[in-house]
Amino acid sequence: MPSIHLRPPFRAEHIGSLLRPSALLAKRELAEEHKCSVADLHADEDEAIKHVVKLQQELGIKTITDGEMRRGMFFEGVFDVLEGMTYMPKRPITEFKPYIPHIGFMYAMGTKEAETIYCSGKIKRTKPFYVEHFKYLKSLVSPEDVKFLKVTICSPSWFHQRHGSDMTYDLSVYKNDDEYFDALGIAYRAEFQELYEAGCRHIQIDDPTFCYFCNEGMIAGMEKAGVDHAALLDTYIRAINVCTQGRPADLTIGVHLCRGNFKGAHFSEGGYDRISDKLFNTLDVDTFYLEYDNERAGDFKPLKHLPLNKVAVLGLMTTKKPDLETSEELKARVNEAVEILVQGNPPRSRETALNQLCISTQCGFASVWQGNPVTEEDQKKKLSLLVETAKQIWPDA
């Protein structure tokens, strides 16, 4: 196994999104009020990206992102730019699956309709998702640091999980989920290849769906609705594998298993026990970013299924509130995880176990442009503590 402090992921990671600086926040608010266009944000986004790149560099964060400054929400820039996708500003809530945790919240709030994207035609990537974003980010760092830049992208299952196999795509266009996800996979692979050719070596797929399978409420709701949740989990694993197949050997791809991160709110809970064995061993990625910031995530026992050729990034630090963890707490939890890995399947040495781990925030600081209820100073303190703690745990890094 390569020494992972020499290539992504690194010992102190973060999930990607960062708080928008005040100037960009103000301009975003104007755009939301239709007092300026999204195009008018470009210069402010450029300056915001310069700001967060400098912040990451000063704090010693090796993995650098653009903080998702050009996005209103983490998933923007993929489905909305694909040919064959139709934006629906007011789709009836009855066409969203109520057993999906965040959709359940919408039902409970009395929401009658919501915006979404529907696949109405053959999927085709006629323009890049984030290649131009990456090129701008690349221009802000030295050539030797380009390989450390990370691009985040939403999972191919994002819209499917909310509408299911019957209402995600036009059944006269794609007959089944395999056809739909195969077409999406072609688009994702083309994006990954173009990013790679531009110098990208680190991609993170943000997936809020897998953790829903850890939620007993959703499982019960699916069973009541007659949905085979085990088969659907297999479908979503395959969907990502179709996207990652055939990637270059030096392109690291990870998946962030998210429990929801809307202005500090979460949508799902439950340990990884239900999915860990299958996910860790059949998902064709290099890295798992796991949320472990509180009791909602359960214990570390599911890590016993982590194979020797993959890495777990432990999201031990919360971005949902300003309370600052301590190095002692973080180090103690890493030691807990090491003990589980040592006794895992297969067993391994402490040295090997520790080499398979990194630490990070549990999610981004701003999955939506408004951000979580923390300040820029809170964000800085948390990232700085991650770096300092990682140096104590892995002195060679």
UniProtKB/TrEMBL annotation:
Record GO terms (molecular function): 5-methyltetrahydropteroyltriglutamate-homocysteine S-methyltransferase activity; zinc ion binding
Stored CDD domains: CIMS_C_terminal_like (cd03311)
Pfam families linked: Meth_synt_2 (PF01717)
Lineage top rank: taxon: Eukaryota
UniProt GO BP: methionine biosynthetic process
SUPFAM superfamilies on file: UROD/MetE-like
Protein's UniProt name: Cobalamin-independent methionine synthase MetE C-terminal/archaeal domain-containing protein
Gene3D superfamilies per record: 3.20.20.210
Cobalamin-independent methionine synthase MetE C-terminal/archaeal domain ranges (all copies): 15-368
